[in-house]
Fold each of these.
Amino acid sequence: MRLLIRNKKLNFFSHIAFIALSFYLSFIIFFGGFLGYVAAKYITKKAIKGTKMKTGYIKLAILKFKNYNFHFHHWMQGTIALFLYIYFSSNDNHFIISFMGGVIAEDFLCDKNFYKVFEKEKKEE
């Protein structure tokens, strides 16, 4: 440690390297989160809900139990995928972790009913 303090050139370059690494990681984390958010937004808007002209081509993940529906929101899917990636992965890929964070954040920010997991089935008369 004393070598870094006494050698001013080495001390200067270590600070520059630290700042460059900080900017690089910040960019990777921001870009991953942004792409995760945009991808989730696009899939939610186009594929699941559909456009005005046609319905979506991906069905919602809804499981039926007796007279209740269990809606498996994509914030739940993203959280499970994130935990599985962190548990089974041997490396820390900041891009993938922040991408999954963007997917999770999109559901919390854009879905008004993100908290509705169990709903009673509506009876049609």
Amino acid sequence: MSTALNSKQEANERHQARKLERYILQYKANQALSKDVKQQMGIVEDQDPTLFEELSLKRKWSHVSKDPSKGLKDEGMNQNSYWSMLNHLPAKGVERIVTERILNYDKDTCDLILQKILMQKQQADLKKEFM
């Protein structure tokens, strides 16, 4: 009996969380909401703007994670919010965006940067020896 109560409570919590996300999205889009809900969303936004922003972005990525290329084409998204939204993606969603090819490019670039730093260091050491 207690497992049924727990699952019902968990379902209710999930429902409330999704309801809050929906209200936040509607509030940000200036859609028709009751005065009470608008006031509550305004209070939530004023009290913790970071949490409010995270919750509004969370729902967007749950849709985009199915096709990450859509997230890259979103013109309304600036570069900073794009990277912060990656934090909310599940691991599979990140793997779809950050492919093996991208990781290899990053590795090669880091190797080149390291080589240049070492070369500069060697040149500086040679200059010290001859001076």
Amino acid sequence: MDNQPAAARKSLFEILSLWRHGKNTRQAADECRSCAVDPRSVLANLREQFDDKTLIEQGMLSDAGDGNGRLAPSLSRPDGPLIFFRPTEEQPPSAILTSRGTLVGEHAVFAAMQDGVTRQRAEKTGVIVAAGRIIETVSLRRLGLPATHGFGLHQLARAELKRLDREFGEGLPDLSVEHDDGEGVDDDGVISLQHDSDSAENEVAEAPGLESRIVSQPALALMGFSLRSGGEEVPGWVIRAAEHLTTARRDFDIDFPGVWVWRPAPEFFEKLHRAIADRDRGDVQMLLQDNLHAMVDIEELLADRRTPPPPVDYVTARQRLLNQRAKGPLMAAVDPLEMAAVRQDLERAIERELVGPMIAWGLQQSNPLVGSAALHLSTVAGMLHRLGPDLNGQLLGAQEQSVSPQHSTPNAIPFDQYVTLIDRFSRLLVGINRWFQ
């Protein structure tokens, strides 16, 4: 086959021919699929057509460390939605969007610019909306809006930041729109367009307000609220992205005139919450379309933020991480965005309450040998506190794996390494104590 990677993406697209979520089963829209109910059968089908090297390169195969490849975790989350980006309806997928971003390669905001449906809609709406959760991306796209995954923008390197500035660089266009009526919000929380045809082309034709104008270069709108809950609070990933882009403005002199945060007025959220509670798809669609112009600059967003909440203490952060691991020892039932936030809270608490004070104490010692030993002690202590909750979750995962052997626990931590760190910590502590005796 001439283009193995593209062919592998197309094969996966065809294998996952149904969109399933909760108790509902329906034929997928042309771009949406769900993760496999039986990952082993999907992987076996793929392996009949492609070698492991191709599947690993495309992020579809992961190595558990035992020599037996398994379907990637991002493709194995039960009923997790996937979006396939394609330049045209006739071409194979160019990227696969999962709950963790694109399966391989570039960030999802760049991958969306290569998707025919997204570009066609963005030329008429003037924006591409970046959502933080894949379920919100699916909902927005089913409502006819051009949407993609935005999580991870805070990790873009300088070259990617310059590309972001180029591809979304014309500022905010005039977004006057019209809308039509619709009905139905699904039981699973996915807001969907309901019409006779499942083709993406027809979804574009029926999307409200798309006839308003043609925009050659769309703006990127970071969704600064929760569509699923109708919540007004700015998501953490948007704050991190705004901080990163603001720093790039100052340090690299990159303006980002085409990157904004979508923040409607307070009354919008009252109406959105009511429309979602009433399961009124028409009102949801109308509200979103009517408020697409409600953008704020990334620096304005940061300036208007209220006093941040107090930091999460170590005990609370550790317990939250343990609770997350208990939800899904094999990481299948864990929201990756929520897990990332919980891990960040724990990391900050470890540095603030444990490692930081040990470093400060070590630097105050007059004897350089004692100070050096204290710095090593702080490093080992930090590693132990970071690995502890994961090791606990890994032990729970081993119990579940005995029931579901097709799954694997990613990033396994050898127990003997953990014991070695404890021994190292004890030796350093004993050595420091002897010096003061």
